[in-house]
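Key idea: predict the complex, not the pieces.
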Amino acid sequence: MMENYILELKNITKVFPGVKALDNVNFSLKKGEVHALVGENGAGKSTLIKILTGVYQPNEGSVFVDSKKVSLLNPQEAFTHGINVVHQERNLIPTFTVAENIMIEQYCKKMTSTINQKKINQDAQKYIDLVGLDLEPTKNVEELSAGKQQLVEIAKALSSDAKIILLDEPTASISVKEGEGLLDLIRNLRNKGVTFIFVSHKLEEVFNIADTVTVLRDGKNVKGEGTNGIHVPVKDLTRNQLITMMVGRTEEFRAFEDRDFSDKEVILEAKMLRSVDSPKPKSFKLCKGELLGWYGLVGAGRTEFARTLIGYDPPIEGEEFVNGKKTVVKNIKQMQSKHKLYYLSENRKEEGLFLKHSIKANITSSMLNKIKNRLGMLNFKKEQAVANKFKEELDIKTPSINQVVNNLSGGNQQKVSIAKGLSVEPDILIIDEPTVGIDVKTKAEIHRLMRNLTNEGKSIICITSDMQEIIQIADRIVVFKAGKIKGELKNTKVYGEMSKRIMKLIMD
Amino acid sequence: MNQLLNNVSDTSNKKKRFVINNTMGVLLAMIVFSIFVGCSSNTFFSVDNFIAVSRICSITVLVGLAQMVVMAGGGLNISVGAIGGLGAVVCGALIKRTGIPWEFAIILGIFIGVFCGAINGFIISRLGGAAEISWLTTLATMAVFTGFSLGITHAKPFYDMPEGYDWIGAYNIFGVLSLMLVIMIFFAVIIWALFKYTSLGRQVLAVGGNQKAAILSGINVNKVLIFKHIISGVLAASAGILFSTRLGAVNADIGKVWMLFSFAAPLIGGTRMEGGRVNVLGAVLGGVLLALVSNGVVHMRINIFIVEFMEGLIILLAVGLDRLRAVREENLERLERSAI
Amino acid sequence: MLKTALRKILRNDLAGITFALVLLCTLLTIFTDGFFSAYNLDSIIKDISIFAIVGMSQMATLGVGQFNLAVGAIGGCAGMIFGALLELMGIPYAIAMIISLAAGYLLGYFQGFLIVKTKINAFIITLALASVYHGLNMTATENRFFRNIPNSFKAIAKGNLWGMPVLLIFSFITMLIFWILFNRTVTGRRILATGVNVKAADYAGIDSGSTIRLAHGLSGSLAALAAVLTISKLGAAQTSIGSTWLLISFAAPILGGTLLSGGKVSIVGTFLGAALMTIITNALVLVGVSFYWFQAFTGGILLLAFTLNKIRESMNTGEGRVLIEGGK
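Result:
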C-alpha cells in the first residue's frame, strides 16, 4: 500500500506544564488533497499546527516530509521544507504593495540585489491571477479587505513553490462572499496539484471542499464512526457523524442540575444595543442568579458586545437596563462601582493581569478604595486578608500571595484573575473564556465556583467557544454569529441534542 | 455620506496620498513662512541668503536622512549628532596631528561613521532589537562617542584647516549653487535610490512594516539592523565633516544639538516613527523648512533661541496632524464597517 | 556555581548594586589618596543627593512605563522661574521653591496630558516638549544669570544638619515621600499597575489617563526640586541647569533596578544608582583620567546598565520562569 504521503506526523505527543496538549497523535497528508483538521477549542488543533510550522517541538514522535524524517526547529525550517502557513492574523507588510508582498522572498534573498519594480509587478501578476484577485499589483496591502489580504498571502505561498499550504480558520474574519471565493480557489488549486491542510470550525466548509478529515478531541485522534480510521474520506461521512466525532460524549460529562428562572427578576437587559465596535443591534436578558452562556465561534462578536455593556466601548444606540433601571453607560469605573458589573477579559495575560506584580496586588487592584485608610494609604493587613480569603476560596496553589503572577500556571493565573473580579463584590460578572488553556481539574473547579456564585445570588454571563463547557454549566444559552444574536435556547443539559441545536442556529 | 465612504475606500493609492499630503504640506509651510519673513526683511530673498540657507539645509537634511534610515526600520538613533562630531573630530585630528592629506582624512572620518554605526547596530541586535532598546543604546553610545570627541580634542578646537578643506564649505558653483548643497543632494539621491531600487532598502522597510512577517519571509533582521545603522552613521559623519568644512574648524561641539532636528526633518516630511514607510523628498523638504526657520528668525531679528522652541512646536504639529489624519481614517473605516 | 551566584545578585537588585558600591569604595580607599578625605566625601554626597532626585524624576515616569526626555528642560525652566522670583520679585526662597515645584508639576502634567490625549508616543512628545520648554526658557530669560541668591539659601547646599549635609536630608525626605507613595498608597499602586499593563488597568477600573498625567507631573516637580537645589549649590540660576541630566536620569534608576518597561520602581535603588554613577566619575578624577573621557565612561556604564536590565527583565518574565504547579 504505497500511499503518496507528502507529510506525516507519527505518534506526536506534546506536553505543557499541567496539560497534555497532544497524546500520541497521527496525521498523514496525501499529495494533492485538501485535508481538513477539525476539532473543538482546546482539542489540540493549534498545537498540532504549531508543531507542523516549527513553533513547537514535540516531546515525542516525529515529522516526515516526503517520507524523510525532518526536525522543524523554527518557522524558517518549516518553510524551507515547503510548509507554508496562512495564519489567522495577517503576516504581510502593510506598507508594501501586493506585488512587493507576494515576491518578497525572491527579492530579499541578497542584500545587494537591485529591485526591478517592473519585474516584480509582472512576476506577481501571475500569482495574482492564479488566486483570482482582480487588482493591480501596485495596490497597497493595507488598503485591502481582510479577505483580499488573505488571498495575497496565498498567492505569496504559491510563489515560493509551497508543497503544502496550511490555512488556519481562513474564513473566520472575511465576508461571506469572499469566503465563497476562497473555497472556489482552494478547489481550483487542488485540481492543479496543490496540497492543502484546512483548519476550520465551520463544518459546512469541510463538507464543501475537503477530501479527507482528521478529527482531534482532547488531544487525541478520533476514529471515524464505522470506518475505524483516523483519516476519514469526507464522502463517507455525514454531518451528524462528524459532529459526533468532534464533540462526542465523554465519560465525565456531568452537567449541573436544571434551574428555573421564569419567575426571577431581570438584572441586566439590553435592547437593540449597539456601539462602534459592536455595530449590529442586539437584545438579551439576564436573570438574577442565572448562569447565562454566550456561545459562538471565533469572530462572533461576543467580546465586543461585552465591551459595550461594561462601558469600555460605550453604546451609541439602544438601551441598557441594570436592575430594571435604564442606565447611561459612561465608562468602566462607573459600571463597576455604581452598577456592580465586572468584566473578566479573555486575554488574561494581556488585559486581565499585572504579570509583574504579586498575587496580592493583582487581587486587590480593582478595589484599592476599599483597603485604604484616611490618608489614601494602603492597609496592608486588609490587603493580605482579602488576598488570603480568595486564595483559600479559590484554592490558588502558591507558596505565598507575594508570588509574582507571571510565575503561576495558567489555571492559577485564571483564578487570580477571577479573584480580582470577585474582590469588588459585583452583582453581575461577565467572564470571557474562563477556562481556555487550563487543565481539566482547575476547569472543573472554576465551573463549580461559577455555579456557587450564582447560587449565592450573583448573575454570570459566561462567554465561551467550548461546547461541552457551555452545555455543562449554563442555564440558558445565547448563540452569536457574525455580530448578531441568532437565538436563545433553554439548556436541557442533554449533550447530543443541545450541541445539534446550537450548531443548527449557527449554520443557518 | 456614501460618497465620503467611497472616497476613502476607492482605488486611490494610500501611499500616493501619503506622499502628496506630506510633501504638499511642507511645501506650503515653506512658502508661507518665506513670504512671512520676506515681508519683514528685505535681505531674505537675496542670492546671498539663498546660499546661506542652502548651506544650513545641507546639514539639516543629511542629519535628517541619517535618522530617517533608522526610523524606516522601526528604530531610533540618538547618537547621530555624536557620530557627526566624532567623524569631524577624527578627521580634524588626523589632519592636524598627522601628515596625511585632508582627502584621506575625510574618508577616514566617514569610516568612523561606519564604525560607530556598526557598533550601534551590533549592540542593539544583541540586546533584542526592540525600538526602546535602540533608543536607549544610542543614548549611551551618544555619550561614549561624545566622550571620545572630547577626549581627542581636549575640548579645544582644531583651527587652520587646509585650503582645500575649507574650499568645500565655501565654494559656490556658478556663484549661486553651494557645493554643500550639491553634496547633500547627491546623498539624498543615493538614499532615495536605496529605498526604491535596492533589496537592502526594502528589507529595512519590511522590518519596519511588520517585523514578524519580515522574519517569516526569511529576512535576517539583525543583519538589516546593522546595515541601516552603518548607513545612518555614514550620513551622520559626513554631515559632521561637511559642517566643519564650512566652519573652518573642528571642535567637539559639532553635532551637540543635532538630535532634535534629526527627528524633526523626517517627522515633518511624513516618515513615521514606527517605520515601514519613508518619504525621502519629504525629509529633504523638512530639512529645508528647518533651515528656513533658523535663517528666517535671524532676519526677523527675533531672539535666536526661539528656533529651538519652534522646532519642538513644529514636530508636535507635524506628528499631531499626522495622528489626526490617521484617526480620521480609522473613524471612517469604522463607519464603513458598522454600515454593513 | 558562579552562575547561580551571579543570577542571585542580578535578581536581588539592591544586593547587586550595594556590592558594587562597597567594592568600588573599598578599592578607591585603598588605592587612592583623595577618596576618603572629608572634603571629597562631602562633595560626592552633595552631588549624589541632587542626582538621586534627578533619577527619581525619571523613575516617576518609568513607573508608568514611559520615558521623560524633558527632565532637564523642565528642571531648567523651573530653576529659572525660581531665580526670577528671587531676584526680580524678591520673594522669600521658601515660597519661591513651592512655586517652582508647582511650575515643574504643571509642565510635567501638560506633557502627560498631551500624551494621553493624542495617544502619540511619549518619546516624541517629551522630545519635542524638551525643545519647546528649553527654547522658551532661553528666549524668556535671554540666557541671563540670576545671581542675586540670598546667602541663607546658598547655605542650604553648604550646610549640615544633624551631622549630615542638608542636601542629603532633602534627598532622604524626597526618597521617603516617594517610597511611601509607591509602596504604601493607593495612588502609587495605581501608577505601577498602569505601568505594567495599561489595558489591564483600564479593565480593572483604574483611570490610566489621570495616572499618567500625575506621574509626569510628579516627574516635573522632582526635576524642579533638583534644579532649585542645584541653584543653591551653584549660587546662581542659569539656563544650563538640567542640560546634562538626560543620561544620569536614566542611568540611576536602571542601575538601581527600576524596570524600563514599567511597573516596578526602586527608590533606594535609584539613590544607589546615582551614588554609583557619581562615585565612578569621582574615581575617574582620582585615578587621573582626563576629564574629557568622562562622558565616554558614563555612556559605557549606561550600556552595562541596559544589559543588566535586559537580563533582569528576561528573568522577570520569559526565560527562567518557575512554574508553580496546580495539583495534578
